[in-house]
Every structure is written in structure tokens, then in C-alpha cells.
Amino acid sequence: MKNQFRKATLSDVNAIWSILQQAIERRKQEGSNQWQDGYPNPEVIKKDVEKEVAFVLIEQGEIAGYVAILINDEPEYENIEGTWKTNKDYVVFHRVAISENHLGKGLAKKMMRFIEEYALENDIYSIKADTNFDNTAMLSIFKKLGYTYCGKVYFRNSPREAYEKVLK
Q: Where in the numbering of this chain does the N-acetyltransferase domain appear (predicted)?
């Protein structure tokens, strides 16, 4: 069965929150301080859905992954300590999480490909993202998929590694 990538609905919030709780616990077990401050939470997911920026990856009929995708909407990126590769329109994604039941299947990379397709469908050729310096899984995905390190950005007074991929 082919993966499906679609906008999330309010009825998906509980499943999404369950996946994010698993990811929060994984970060903790790995010794990361990412997502250990009460963020993200169910209210954040609900707002993502209401703003129509919440997306789910469906695998074998169930929600296997979550991501929020926004266009030109990350004010913190204006304050980068470094330099972005482009200053044009961009897609930014946050809160990438894969269900425990689907780890090791390459679904995070598949989700990143769907994000690239989403950008191209909207005539946008830049994807920007950030992650914690100790989120080795995400850092590895950025490297494998051709993202370039651009500098540091800060969220809730915490430094994050900022990356960009230019699609064309």
C-alpha cells in the first residue's frame, strides 16, 4: 500500500499527540533536551490543524507520522546567527515525529520528500528547518537529503541548528 500524505483533521489530534509523546520520550531517553519543556503539546497540535498546517503520513491505514508545514512563517528565522542560502519564499517544517510502531522504515525521509513535493506544488524552491544540536536522527536526515547548515536560531531561549535545502 502506497504511503498517503494528507492534511490532518481535528479527529487526528489524539493519534498525533500519542506519536509526539513517543518522540518526546525518545528524545529524553537519548539524553536530548529537545521537547523536554512542555512543548509541543495537544494545544499546539490543535492550533496546527486549525491553521491547516498539520499533515500526517499514513502507513498501512494508520497515522504513522506527523509534521507541521508552513510557508514564509517563522519569525525566528529572521534572527539567524549565520546566513540563509536564499532570501526568497520558503517552506518551513516543525514537529517531525514518527510512531514507535513505524520506526526504521525510512518514513521520516519519505515525509521529507512529501514536504519537497508540497513546496514545488506551491512554486517554492527553498525548504528551511531547524533541530536541536543533539537530535542525531534529524541531523543525519538533513545530511542524507542534501540540506546545508546555515547557522543558529533560537526558540524559547534554546539554540537550534538551522538548515536549508534549495530545490532548484
A: 3-168
